[in-house]
Amino acid sequence: MKPFFLLFSTRLRLLFKYLTPSEHKLPRVTFFIIMLGFISGGYYIFFRIFKYLNTVEIIGPAVMSRTIEMIFFVFFIMLLFSNIISSFSTFYNNQELHFLFSLPVLPTTIYLSKLFESALYSSWATFALTIPLIFAYGIANHARFIFYPVTFFSFLIFLLIPAALSTILIFMFIYLFPKLKPRNIVFVSILFIMSLIFLYIKIGNPDLLRIFETENEQELLTFAANLTTVGGLYIPSTWLSNIFKNFLAPDRTGYLYILLLLSTAFSCVLVSYIVAESVYHKSFLLVAEQGGKENKKKSLLASFQKNPVKTFLTKDIILFIREPVQWVQLSIFIILLIIYIISLRRTPIYFGFSLWRTIIAFANFAYVSFVIATLGVRFIFPAVSLERKGIWIIASSPFSLQKMFFTKYLFYAVLAVVIMECLLFVANIFIRTEPVIFRFSLIVGFFVALSLISINLGMGCIFPQFNEDNPSKIASGSGGIIAALTSIAFIGTVIVIFSAPVHNYLLSSYFNRPLNLKIIITAFIIFGILSFMAIYLPVRYGLRSLKKRDF
Amino acid sequence: MLSVRNLSKNFDGIPAVKNLSLELKKGEIFVLLGPNGAGKTTTLKLIAGLLHPDTGEILLDGIDLKKEPVKYKSLIGYVPDEPFIYNKLTGREFINFVAGLFGIKKQEYDKRLTELIKKFEIGNWIDEPAETYSHGMKQKIVMCQLLIHEPELILIDEPLVGLDPKMSKIVRETFIELAQKGKTLLVSTHTLSFARQIAQRLGIINKGELKFVGTPEELARIAGREDIEEIYLKLTEEN
């Protein structure tokens, strides 16, 4: 076990350095204050929701229970996806592995140390969201002290299950389909998981896909009281949510779920260990050999290019297309967005009322903004870092760093604006949003998209990581976390700014109250100033940091 | 051609280059010799515009790096000690990328690329992804990207790392050809035999300070010996 602890402690030290921004001259205290602010904000939102639900009779607790189940079910699926993506790069596509395999260390030792590393990288966002959730749920429900350590411990155990399952899947796919290109393994694995989840829900829990429609209050209460579990009894997320519920009050069944979670996590890690023992080293060699058998590449860059900006952009696009970690995650985003948009089309009958449609349109605007923010943190924040050690080529060429920055900026801005506007446009058509709100969302969306690009690209220049190859890891480092929190804070502020005028507009449209133009104009002025700052300041400071940097 | 005046650079208060001044003539091959950590790479990076000097100025044909960086950089070519190529690009794509950044003309590009492929014997590899390349192959591709835009000032850090004897000879001959064409070369190495073979002048650097600047013959004359290895060891023995 000594080599394992040695490897694992080294990984932990590296991870700690990675997550704390000492290299960026940002004091660690500031970083932890920002994190604390995020957790406190998360706590406040969750607490308000749970507190409110506790005041609603019958349906409130049922909805709270279902919310918890739904959150953990979504976490479980997202963890499976992120672990699959992270597993491939951690176990196969990593320069360090060549060194590790040359050491007198068993492949299983490498596997175990890397498993925890992969789990940590894949789970930090879920972890950061669960901490405030535990406190909010516990405090809103007056939980006993034991609730907090038990739920925290259970959550940590829960994280191991998707991590181990993902590695089993990746190992098996690579081993069983040696002719499948390594870059397609991740995509196939994710499609496989998605199909399994869909089948499981369709066969085992079809209610989850059905939208309950009724105008009868009694029916609604009966439905709420008889809500089935979200993921079904055999899904670890259900056990975790049951631990949350059962440890609020003295209830021994909670221990049963802890045991269930523990034994499943242990079994998953054990099975993954056995699989790793028999196939990891062989499959690693297989992937290494496959890497040398790539077909000859033909691309736009294979012929002479005259225009420096076009050359630079072509390089970026080619690298994106050839990097599985990049396009697989983008594909997942696109698939999830398509599902979301289709689900909007199935908006049930009680949303036929204009007031509801306006509220949904506003919520949709917030959601789409969060989607763009997520895309920004994941794909735009690492854009400068992904120049990697090759930054010397640009920094010593007549293609200035400023030109590089603005080439990237314009490219991503066009993409983000197009995605944002398309999503808003299609969603508003499906929701049948009324014209005023429709136009409002498109105009505000344009500036929100530009601001989010600035925040993420600018922060990417302030906190670059030229030594990291994996874009997911760049995005999940300290700089990425700060960019994510800034993006969320920006969107939150925009929502707050426009909540008053939208509320006023609703009152005037549907309840014959007077329209307060002052509120509307003030909101737009504040939004204009905020957008200007969000666009200008990250660009200014990002560029300044880039120009001052030694390469 | 190249004028470096009073150049200094500190990293976290530790001096890497101390008040370095250097003048290079057109068509000259200047070799910077020194032990590991002497400040060779820092000096080259400063001249390539990859590091910001704390003090001093760098001029190339009167163009100040600080005032006109784009104009300055269009005249230089740099090869680092670690030949990095984007793993997912092929050698050809990488060379085209650099050619595109420097905005060279199509006729020049076609002619030079054909010559370079032949000279460095990379025809079988140029359309393979860089992730399959050996260290030596990467070094060859990086040399090609340097020569595709025929810079006036060539900065090369440890050019022989990873190259076999045949390729080392080709590199050496290429350097001499370039100098004959009027290109200026600043080469950093700690391989004394290589320095002796190509250097018209050499500088010995230790702890960020230039301890000696002159021709190999001058160096030998000053020390009263013919073997520059002993002089080199003596000048850098403080290390």
Quaternary status: heterodimer
The largest pleated sheet of chain B is described as: 6 strands, mixed
Number of strands of chain B: 10
Helix amount of chain A = over 70%
Radius of gyration of chain B: 18 Å
Low-pLDDT parts of chain A are none
Q: Looking at the structure, what is the overall shape of chain B?
A: globular
Order of helices and strands of chain B: EEEHEEHEHHHEHEHEEHH
Would you write up a description of this structure?
The complex is a heterodimer of chains A (551) and B (239). With 551 residues, chain A is mainly α. Chain A contains 19 helices and no strands. In chain A, helix 5 runs antiparallel to helix 10. The two termini of chain A are 40 Å apart. The model of chain A has no long low-confidence stretch (mean pLDDT 82). Chain B is an alpha/beta fold. A six-stranded mixed β-sheet of chain B has the order 6-7-8-3-9-10, with helices on both faces. In chain B, strands 2-1-4-5 form a four-stranded antiparallel β-sheet. In chain B, a hairpin with a 2-residue loop joins strand 9 and strand 10. The mean pLDDT of chain B is 86. At the A-B interface, helix 11 and helix 14 of A face helix 2, strand 6, helix 3 and helix 4 of B.
What tags apply to this protein structure?
heterodimer, A: 551 residues, 2 domains, 19 helices, globular, B: 239 residues, alpha/beta, Rossmann fold, four-stranded antiparallel β-sheet, 10 strands, 39% helix, 26% strand
Strand and helix layout:
The complex is a heterodimer of chains A (551) and B (239).
Chain A: H1 2-19, H2 28-55, H3 59-91, H4 95-101, H5 107-140, H6 147-176, H7 182-204, H8 217-225, H9 236-246, H10 253-291, H11 308-322, H12 324-345, H13 354-380, H14 391-395, H15 401-431, H16 435-462, H17 471-475, H18 478-510, H19 517-548
Helix pairs in contact in A: 1-5, 2-3, 2-5, 2-18, 3-5, 3-6, 3-7, 3-9, 5-6, 5-10, 6-7, 6-9, 6-10, 7-12, 9-10, 12-15, 13-15, 13-16, 13-18, 15-16, 16-18, 16-19, 18-19
Chain B: E1 2-11, E2 14-24, E3 29-33, H1 40-48, E4 55-60, E5 63-64, H2 69-73, E6 76-79, H3 91-102, H4 106-120, H5 135-148, E7 153-157, H6 165-180, E8 184-189, H7 192-198, E9 201-206, E10 209-214, H8 216-223, H9 228-235
Helix pairs in contact in B: 3-5, 4-5
